[in-house]
């Protein structure tokens, strides 16, 4: 090649889709600025298999070592080739990223709270659907939420709206809720995909099979709370199951919080 180029190994949640969207926007912006070849071109690996082959080609074991950060190192070489090295969870111990890729998806935990009035009539079907989606239930308890605990589960935009906050908290504290700790690979995102949007009407328009479309009746009484991110899942497990869980496949909570 006639000019130097850069190779990056990137790691993140839903890396292929996210990087593809970012590069699409970057390419469109580049095309508006110039019709020539003066600006850099970008390529990315499209599958995990291609990513693995390219990572072996351009990097050594020593180059791709994760630490306590959420990303792997960047490395300058001679070709622009954005290769998203994907993994569903990061580990706080130093580890070969090649070994991580070969090990496959890591088992994660997440929390599902079935809101008052829903679990008492829909629990058998919900448990069956969880089983069909390969979730394991590793913790379960019913409880009555206090106002502070209910408010902590709500999105920031709801917490900043006094009327919406009061409506949500009134509903969440109106009866007994059932909290489940669930476990499977990619548990957090998979649960969010099953629940659908917070508003049941929007969920119904997207897909009638989404859980909030089936069980929810309004944006307040939408049937479920699910941990919206990995960090929130770690927080929720610690909040609702401080006594521990009946399974030890995942990292201990103290290790996940590092």
UniProtKB/TrEMBL annotation:
Pfam short name (any one): NDK
Statement: the UniProt record of this protein carries the keyword Magnesium: no
Keywords assigned: Kinase, Transferase
Superkingdom, taxonomy of origin: Eukaryota
This protein's name: NDK5 kinase
Phylogenetic placement of the source organism: Eukaryota, Metazoa, Chordata, Craniata, Vertebrata
Residue stretches making up the Nucleoside diphosphate kinase-like domain: 107-247
SUPFAM superfamilies: Nucleoside diphosphate kinase, NDK
UniProt similarity note: Belongs to the NDK family.
Record GO terms (molecular function): kinase activity
Species per Swiss-Prot/TrEMBL record: Vidua chalybeata
């Amino acid at each position: 090649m006639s000019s130097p180029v850069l190779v990056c190994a990137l790691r993140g949640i839903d890396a292929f889709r996210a990087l593809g969207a970012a590069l699409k926007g970057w390419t469109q912006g580049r095309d508006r600025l110039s019709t020539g070849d003066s600006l850099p071109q970008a390529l990315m690996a499209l599958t995990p298999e291609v990513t693995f082959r390219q990572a072996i080609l351009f990097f050594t074991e020593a180059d791709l070592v994760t630490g306590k950060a959420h990303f792997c190192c960047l490395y300058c070489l001679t070709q622009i080739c954005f290769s998203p090295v994907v993994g569903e969870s990061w580990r706080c111990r130093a580890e070969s990223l090649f070994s991580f890729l070969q090990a496959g998806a890591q088992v994660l935990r997440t929390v599902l709270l079935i809101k008052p009035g829903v679990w008492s009539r829909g629990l058998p079907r919900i448990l069956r659907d969880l089983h069909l989606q390969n979730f394991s239930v590793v913790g379960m308890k019913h409880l009555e939420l206090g106002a502070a605990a209910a408010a902590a589960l709500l999105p920031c935009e709801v917490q900043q709206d006094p009327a919406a906050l009061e409506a949500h908290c009134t509903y969440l504290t109106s009866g007994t809720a059932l909290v489940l700790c669930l476990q499977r690979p990619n548990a957090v995102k998979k649960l969010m995909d099953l629940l659908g949007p917070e508003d049941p009407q929007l969920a119904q328009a997207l897909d009638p099979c989404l859980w909030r479309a089936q069980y929810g009746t309004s944006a307040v009484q939408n049937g479920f709370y699910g941990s919206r991110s990995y960090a929130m899942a770690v927080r929720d497990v610690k909040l609702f199951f401080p006594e521990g869980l009946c399974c030890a496949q995942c990292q201990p909570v103290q290790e996940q919080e590092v």
